[in-house]
Amino acid sequence: MIFSLHFCPNISLVFWGALHYSLLLIILLFPFYAILTSLWTIYPAITLKKSIYNLLYSFGSISAGYLYMRFNLSKQFKFILPASIFLIGLSIFSIVTGIPQNSWSGGHGLGFMGFSYHQNTLAATLLFTIPLLSGLMIDSNNKIVFKDIIKIKSNFIGYLLFSFSVIIIFLTYSRASLLALGLGIVLLLILIKKYKLLLILILVATSIISVTLMTPLNTKLKELAFKTSNNLFDRRTILWEPSIEAAKRSVLFGIGYGVSDPKIKTVDGTASYYNNGIYIREKGNGYLAIIEETGLAGLILFFIPIIILLKKMIIKLREKTDHILLFFLAVAFAYAFFESWLVYYGTAMYDIFYLMLGLGLWTQFEDNNRNDIKKIRD
Description:
- The chain is mainly alpha-helical.
- It has one domain.
- Helices cover 65% and strands 4% of the residues.
- Helix 4 packs antiparallel against helix 5, helix 7 runs antiparallel to helix 8 and helix 9 packs antiparallel against helix 14.
- The two termini are 33 Å apart.
């Protein structure tokens, strides 16, 4: 939020000089519409406060991604390295030392959560960094320099951090993160035309699962797939069913950003709770959450800049950056089927998403951007 407040007075320098006014307006359509929903919500003060925070967080993160590419174009995805190293290092420390005491027993009680408050939170944060690490993996010509002494190839660092991230995600037992990651990896390998590698990975995965089913590890595999439920999606359907009902009740314009329909509740045992007498429901699906809170109108406005970005990317689709951005969007939107991060400003997933949106806007409009910067410098 502080970042947003700092840069809002300099909008003309950050965006308007390089992007068209119409594109800036399109980017901000959903945040401003979310503010507008405070006019008809049953909790106007809450909706107004949360929607303003949403505007500041999203615009700040977009500005961060945009400015990073503007002044660090050659470094591209290396900005994720400190966060990735910190997360992985902290997780390894927790695994080795057993600190904190509830690192394996907290959250849903199945899998590793380390210093996070839930397994899914740790897994999702790592998940959203993985596409950026893959950008380093396929960059064999670049080097990462430490204090002008140690020089290590970017792809080696990328492979190392990528591998640790995947292992930790497996340890969290976060099925949604694993499904989203699998989908993203398949898409990336298709985009970079590594069809043989994709086939090998599919065969290896199928073989490992088949062998596991015939060993004592079969029980562990079922525990990962089903956790404590009888069916694969039981733990999600108890969230989806109320969210579908709530979305139907406010399908056009929504009940108000950041609030839940008080008449629709989830069963006991979910993360739903009361805050000062106001019911906050765990929604379990980002798309249903947007429809419930802002209606189909909000969902359309949210995706308009994404569609514009995708259109430009698909037309160009010639560079590594395009492949990584598509990988990231596939992972992010696949994960949104299982978690409602799309409306949770301030989370790592939300911030990384909008940062990547700003990064993507720079890369897709880079020809205009370079010309504008050249004019400014001249």
